[in-house]
């Protein structure tokens, strides 16, 4: 059985790590370079860096910031935000990223996933999906949760897999920052219908939520931000807790 991964996420805006609730009301959470270094030392399995306003502002992710974070890590590093073409992927891999996360640009032009997978390999391409439940279906959103697309979560996740994405990073916008647990039902449906790893995002507030994401949600990895940034959960303690439930962690 593959070990489950614990992944801190740095949502970066104007060069600073921020954290919001339901994708709004951001507060400062610290320096991305320092936080990345800390998580690498504390036993995180991977790190995700998202330039959360790059797509909305129509600009590229800050490669120099990525370079500075990468220099302090010895764990796999995924970067997302403002990636629209292969040149962007190349620039970020050169800056020290191991994988790239594509979201808005991939929904607008799905062939981007095929291009990344065929040029760099599926393992480099993470398809990030921000979705909100409308009472009937999970609908995907663009530009950091600003624009509804009409595309449905499960259908788009399947297409991303077929086009060559190596992982799905699913964020429930309804659960984001609320700290009441992940969207386990939707996660389990993704896990049951896809053959690639699913990363759970949105809703971590306590150790039990990670446990439930792995057991009920069948997720392969769980991503969280504020509970790590503000010291509410320590990664080593979380891993010890999960081991008590026979959840394989590194």
UniProtKB/TrEMBL annotation:
Heterodimer of HisH and HisF. It comes from the Bacteria. Its EC number is 4.3.2.10. IGPS catalyzes the conversion of PRFAR and glutamine to IGP, AICAR and glutamate. The HisF subunit catalyzes the cyclization activity that produces IGP and AICAR from PRFAR using the ammonia provided by the HisH subunit. Pathway: Amino-acid biosynthesis; L-histidine biosynthesis; L-histidine from 5-phospho-alpha-D-ribose 1-diphosphate: step 5/9. Its main location: cytoplasm. GO terms for molecular function: imidazoleglycerol-phosphate synthase activity; lyase activity. GO terms for cellular component: cytoplasm. The gene is hisF. InterPro entries: Aldolase_TIM, His_biosynth, HisF, IGPS_HisA/HisF, RibuloseP-bd_barrel. Keywords: Amino-acid biosynthesis, Cytoplasm, Histidine biosynthesis, Lyase. It is found in: Cytoplasm. Pfam families: His_biosynth. It catalyses: 5-[(5-phospho-1-deoxy-D-ribulos-1-ylimino)methylamino]-1-(5-phospho-beta-D-ribosyl)imidazole-4-carboxamide + L-glutamine = D-erythro-1-(imidazol-4-yl)glycerol 3-phosphate + 5-amino-1-(5-phospho-beta-D-ribosyl)imidazole-4-carboxamide + L-glutamate + H(+). One of its GO terms (biological process) is L-histidine biosynthetic process. The active site is at 11, 130. This is Imidazole glycerol phosphate synthase subunit HisF. Belongs to the HisA/HisF family.
């Amino acid at each position: 059985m593959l070990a489950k991964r614990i992944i801190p996420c740095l949502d970066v805006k104007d060069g600073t790590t921020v954290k919001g609730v339901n994708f709004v009301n951001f507060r400062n959470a610290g320096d991305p370079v320092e936080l990345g270094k800390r998580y690498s030392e504390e036993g995180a399995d991977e790190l995700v860096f998202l330039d959360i306003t790059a797509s909305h502002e129509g600009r590229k992710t800050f490669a120099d910031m990525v370079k500075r974070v990468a220099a302090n890590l010895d764990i796999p590093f995924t970067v997302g935000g403002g990636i629209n073409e292969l040149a962007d992927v190349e620039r970020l891999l050169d800056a020290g990223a191991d994988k790239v996360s594509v979201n808005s640009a991939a929904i607008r032009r799905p062939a981007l996933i095929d291009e990344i997978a065929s040029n760099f390999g599926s393992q480099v391409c993470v398809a990030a999906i921000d979705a909100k439940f409308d009472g009937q279906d999970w609908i995907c959103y663009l530009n950091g949760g600003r624009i509804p697309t009409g595309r449905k979560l499960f259908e788009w996740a399947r297409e991303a897999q077929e086009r060559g994405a190596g992982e799905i990073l699913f964020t429930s916008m309804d659960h984001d920052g609320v700290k009441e647990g992940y969207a386990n039902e939707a996660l389990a449906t993704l896990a049951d219908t896809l053959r690639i790893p699913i990363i759970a995002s949105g809703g971590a507030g306590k150790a039990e939520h990670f446990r439930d994401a792995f057991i009920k949600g069948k997720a392969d990895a769980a991503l969280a931000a504020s509970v790590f940034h503000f010291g509410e959960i320590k990664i080593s303690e979380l891993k010890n807790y999960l081991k008590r439930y026979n959840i394989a962690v590194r």
